[in-house]
Amino acid sequence: MNKIKIALVSSITFITIIWFLTNTLLYIPFDSNLFAKSLDQYTGIIAFSAMTFSMILATRPIWIEKRLGGLDKSYRLHKWLGIIAFSFSIMHWLVSKLPEWWLYLDRLIILDGISGATVSLGEPSAFEVFLESIESLAKQVGEYAFYLTVLFIVMALIKKIPYRFFAKTHIAMAVIYLMLVFHSFALMYIDYWTEPIGIMMAIMMIIGTVSSFIVLLGQVGKKRKSEGYIQSINTYPDMKMFELIVKSDKWKGHHEGQFAFLKFEKKEPHHPFTISSAWDNKTKEIRFTIKALGDYTNNLANKLKIGDSIVLEGAYGNFTFNDKKESQIWIAGGVGITPFLARMERLAQLDNKQKIDFFYSAMKLDSNFKNKLLQLSSEANINLHLFETSKSAPVSGSYIRNSVSDWKSASVWFCGPPKMGKSIKKDFKQNGFNSKFHQELFEMR
To answer: What is the domain partition of the chain in residue ranges?
Structure first.
């Protein structure tokens, strides 16, 4: 089980265990009224917890990125937490819409979490009176928040929606989260507040609220931002790619294989691009090799000009070729070549003793770009294998296995189309691969 699955399962399991220390769904004899109310509380708490964890990840905390193995992994976890929040929100909404006779439970009665017995509270406390006074409003706020959550999560999952709109959904979700804090605070059982689940909910509400304001005030990644300007632009028309060389005196440096968020226009959000150059503290230059893949990047090359200012945020990621293996296998497809360009540039400056076989597959190879690859790979002492898929078959797992004698023990570094990586990884696993397969999950949504 990878780190993403472990983090996902352990976080939800942890909250579930804490909830069961206070309440239960197993009523003997079965009581439909208590069961429905408990299920309503449980689904709401899990949905809120997943939303909180997702909101924390939206602030791009460095300590979580390091433990998960890169920001790409954090974003994948962020995505799945959103799906869990979405699923449990639907269940919570459905339970709340059950017939009134099945849901009704007097607010002046508390649950005994093990036996399901009820105990009269007597006179309500001032806190309970306050909660009852905002109960109706909290229900309305929660229902509107649910509808908006469904709308924006669906927008986030539909990849055809432009990235600039997708990015704005995160601002909206921060507002929705604050609505859900109010909803959860008002409608959670009052007796929970003195139990472990109530203490945990209070902690999550505080941390989640702070995270929401970090997002709303535009403070995400503030300490990692620096300004620069475009120093040169090179184009590779046959591959629909262009290269930006950005100068930034305030950039703190990066490792080969990392990426940064770039902001070219005030109205546009930051867009992620992998850095395709090794860092040189003397020149202060950062190169980005960008392929026209969508509405934004298709027009970007025509909009930009030398001297334009750029805001950079980073560097992020852990795809840094950092292992002690005697041999490595690099595999790239299309614009997935960017981290390998940076690494080859670095190795060209060193006396590389590591055995590296690099397999690069592209629909068409621009002659200038091809010459650049041949020169870099030669200087870095790398065995380069080129595949032009408009003329030949793409690289396959069987071809790599037949080309590299020690492929079973070599570490593999892959960056390219997910289907391509999945196919090669499956082929390797089926034929006895016993090393590490590193794959960049470069999907920000």
So the answer is: 3-216, 223-316, 327-439
Tokens of 326: 């005697």
CA distance 197 to 10: 16
- Residue 420 phi, psi (nearest 5): -65, -45
User: What are the start-end ranges of the E strands in 334-382?
Assistant: 355-362
| Sign, Cα dihedral of 157, 162, 167, 173 | negative
Q: Which two tokens stand for residue 230?
A: 């475009």
- Domain 223-316 sits in CATH 3.50.50.60: no
Q: Pinpoint the alpha helices (H) of 188-316.
A: 196-216, 295-303
- How does DSSP assign 142-188, residue by residue? HHHHHHHHHHHHHHHH-TTS-HHHHHHHHHHHHHHHHHHHHHHHHHS
Closest alpha carbon to 415 in 245, 277, 258, 218? 258
CA–CA separation, 45 and 24 (whole Å) = 13
Highest CATH level, class, for 327-439? alpha beta
d(CA 244, CA 72): 23
How far apart are the C-alpha atoms of 177 and 180, rounded to whole Å?
5
**Phi, psi (deg, nearest 5) at residue 6:** -60, -45
Residue 90, token pair as written in the block:
């639907």
pLDDT tens-digit profile of 381-422?
999 999 998 888 889 999 999 999 999 999 999 999 989 999
pLDDT in tens, 64-86: 988 888 888 898 899 899 899 99
Contact 141, 148 (CB under 8 A): no
Residue 118's region, left for phi above 0, alpha for psi from -120 to 50, else beta, is beta
Q: What is the pLDDT of residue 231?
A: 96
Closest residue by Cα to residue 294 from 85, 133, 445: 445
